[in-house]
């Protein structure tokens, strides 16, 4: 997909099935909203095994992948595209390390999880990875280009 805004960065954030089951969707969205990032796409989906193996192509051969597949297809996920300056790296910091047991309090995983196999949320790990993942989960017409009214109050014009 070609993303609506050229100059800024995008990332794919997903609330995993445990986050949906545990009613954490609102709190997770809230963290990205309050940071000032802009939501440009959002939907609820049941991930197929094929989509998931593409999404996780870097870990698909790992011995624990069957656990990941079972986890991630066990229920619906919420997938989102967030936009903003440095949003990929900032989101990874907000999400915290893969294993919630090692995550700092204040991160999403540090506040809501303590097991690597139930870590509540996904965040792309690079701008290239984000582009690839957004293309897997979203159609072009599902991403909206809109002007947020607080733009001048979250980004200094230069
Ligand atoms: P992330 O980028 O922090 O999400 O971590 P990775 O890209 O390394 O792994 C992708 C996802 O696979 C993680 O978020 C976990 O849900 C899962 N995962 C990674 N390592 C393990 C593991 O050792 N055991 C299990 N059960 N799941 C794992
Ligand atoms: Mg990863």
Automatic annotation (TrEMBL):
Domain of life the protein comes from: Eukaryota
Chain segments annotated as transmembrane: none
Species of provenance: Gouania willdenowi
Binding residue positions for ATP: 16, 64, 92, 98, 109, 119
Biological process terms in GO annotation: CTP biosynthetic process; GTP biosynthetic process; UTP biosynthetic process
Protein known as: Nucleoside diphosphate kinase B
GO cellular component, as recorded: lamellipodium; mitochondrial intermembrane space; mitochondrial matrix; nucleus; ruffle
Similarity comment: Belongs to the NDK family.
CDD domains, A to Z: NDPk_I
Residues forming the catalytic site: 122 (pros-phosphohistidine intermediate)
Topology relative to the membrane: Peripheral membrane protein
Domain annotation Nucleoside diphosphate kinase-like: ranges: 8-145
